[in-house]
Amino acid sequence: MSEAKKGDKVKVHYTGRLNDGSEFDSSKDREPLEFEIGSQQVIPGFENAVLGLKTGESVTVNIPSDDAYGPRVDEMVLKIEKEKLPPDFNPELGQQFQLPQQNGQNVVVTVTDISDTQIELDANHPLAGKDLTFDIKLVDIS
Q1: Distance between CA atoms of residues 47 and 82, nearest Å
Q2: What local confidence, expressed as pLDDT, does residue 47 receive?
Q3: How far apart are CA 132 and CA 95, in angstroms?
Q4: What pLDDT is attached to residue 99?
Q5: Which residues 6+ apart lie within 8 Å of 78 measured at CB?
Q6: Cα–chain-centroid distance for residue 72?
Q7: What is the C-alpha radius of gyration for the chain, rounded to an integer number of angstroms?
Q8: Is the dihedral of CA 132, 17, 43, 62 positive or negative?
Q9: Strand 33-36 and strand 58-63: pairing?
Q10: Shortest CA distance to 120 belongs to which of 92, 87, 78?
Q11: Would you say 138 and 10 are in contact if contact means Cβ atoms under 8 Å apart?
Q12: pLDDT in tens, 107-140
């Protein structure tokens, strides 16, 4: 039985948890996650955990934030005066939307605070700065 290596397409079932044990994502009620090892489709720590596994094998791995979604960056939090927003825009706490950047790309932001005069938008990934634990089972290698 072969081991998962760079260039292989793999299918895995997984459950992701934070340090407090709360589950933030799982494939248990969905199709397995499929990705190519080495293509940077998943976070580095997840990809590294799958390397060397054989079909049917499982592993639990703790992934520090640097090998997950990186550190939280304070400069990625923006405060915008409400008067600069379109009049028909009514943001809600936790709402996510895309903002265009100068390079033509869009960035996903989350509304993290709303006051009478401004809103706060956070462009950090919601899991940035967090250490993650994954239970991973390799389902298939192709």
Answers
A1: 42
A2: 96
A3: 23
A4: 86
A5: 109, 120, 121, 122, 123
A6: 13
A7: 19
A8: positive
A9: unpaired
A10: 78
A11: yes
A12: 999 999 999 999 999 999 999 999 999 999 999 9
pLDDT tens-digit readout, 47-90: 999 999 999 999 999 999 999 999 999 999 999 999 998 889 88
Whether the model clears a pTM of 0.85, i.e. scores above it, the answer is: no
The pair of three-digit structure tokens given for residue 39, joined into one six-digit string: 């293509």
Domains and CATH numbers, the chain: 9-70+127-141 (3.10.50.40), 74-122 (2.40.10.330)
* Cβ atoms within 10 Å, residue 40: 10
Tokens 């054989």 identify what position? 54
The phi and psi torsions of 136 (rounded to 5 degrees) equal: -125, 135
At 58, is the secondary structure helix, strand, or coil?
strand
- Contact between 45 and 67 under an 8 Å Cβ cutoff? The reply is yes
Signed CA dihedral, 25, 26, 31, 32: sign only: positive
Instruction: Count Cβ neighbours within 10 Å for each residue of 75-100 and write b for 16 or more, e otherwise.
Output: eebeeeeeeeeeeeeeeeeeeeeeee
Does residue 1 register a pLDDT over 80?
no
CA atoms within 13 A on the CB side of 35: 19
Hey, CA dihedral for 44, 49, 54, 58, is it positive or negative? negative
